[in-house]
Amino acid sequence: MATLLFTVTTSNTSTSSGESSTENSWCQSNWVLNREGCCIRTAEGKGRGVYASRIIPPQTVIEVSPVLLFTRTEYNDYGRHTILDHYVYKWRDGRMALALGLGSIFNHSSHPNVSYTIDPAHQCIRYTSTRTINPEEEMCIFYGQNLWFDPVGTTENLEPQVYLDQSDQSEFLDILAIDIEVVEVEPWDTSGDPHDILEGEALPFIWKKLQIDEEEESMEDIRTMQAWAVDISNSKYIATMLKWLKQSGLESDTLSHLKRIRKRDSISTLLLSVSSSVPLLPTNIDIGDPYQISVPCNPALTQTSLILKNTLWPTVYAPRRKWEPEKWSIAKVQWARDAINHILRNTAETASSDELPVVAYVPKPFEDEALLSRSFTAKDTRISTGHPLRHAAMNIIRNVADWRAQTTPADLLSDPLKPATSPSNGSLGISDTSSNGVNYLLTGLTLFITHEPCIMCSMALLHSRVKEVFYIVPMPQTGGCGGSACLPALKGVNHRYSIAHWRQKEGNAPAHIDEQIDA
Fold it and tell me: Where is this region: Disordered (predicted)?
């Protein structure tokens, strides 16, 4: 195996404005291996490594290395017993690949400045800078978490030595090595009747049990709201007022966790509503005037909170039930598996776009396609747009919102959750005002995403009223679905969605990104 080397002679070349004579002399003393200015140097304790001879901007392809592929048998019988075992990459179908060129010279760093993507079609590996790389700075990739050696030093996050155009927004994405292949989830055991129920280990995913914060156990913890009430001194009017209340339209689910009547001594008090204006009461019944009182916002989940809340108003006791996941049939598991394969295929396509390999997908519902008449796919576009909020989950919520906003009367029949827009002539449809806030964007729908959504995206999904979220790669430091926090389990949120972690089998994982990145 031979490597073509060439040198750059600078003795007859004037120094550019962004370089010093010291940098030029450094370049002269090292072999420059390609047009991007990559050099090989030997570092103490690390051996040979790849270094920059000049400033390299972010998202620059610095090396494309062809590979030699070994079958599983060849590698197990011979390759793994040699020094090659320290340099090969895992390929699809169980093969191992040896990168030629500079591919086998890049050292490891837990904070790499170079990412790599695997290109199975052309049997090569592409290496790309993830941020500005300075002259004399080593270029490193990420080998993974299970290292067979003790790492020496780290790649320094040096400040650029030249002024970069302010339109370059990509430096905040310090992406770790990206290892992308077009992979599909191995079939789970789905033999049998499609209506048979799969449970526990038979499922290809693990439900995350939401650990709800502790209930209010002191008066200071109890959350209250203002409600209208009226005293009824003569008990014979209670039945009449209850009947009137049902017909008045004042009843709502907001007060469903509270008992309607409170009795103290000879006075009965009727709970009316939480309306902002004073309720208009019947004039032919001898009762008092309505007034506002503080009542609990939630039912009592423990005996202690029940006693405390009853001092404000008689409250329903609803002890927390043991969490039980929804039953999944073989047919529904296959529907979910198809969705996971869809995001894996789309993740592979990001290899040529330099975007973060995060993909979100909302398919048509398994049981009720009337909730959504088409599917949606969205990718992370923070790099191409230079916008830090263009996460895949945020993009898919935005895409659904844009689609629902473009409605014709025919759409209402096929997609009842899609809010209508009044035509200009006012003769058809429902006005924007009347539908505003009535229909949430993802009610009853399932989101599949390659990486655990960050806290921002998890909160956006909560507000969208999504039914459940499935992810493949956990993000323990930034995730909002059980990683660094679990948004649906927080006390006081007005919606909770189910969370499932899709089981990864070897070779079926999507690309990895830096654990510090918000996916």
Answer: 1-23
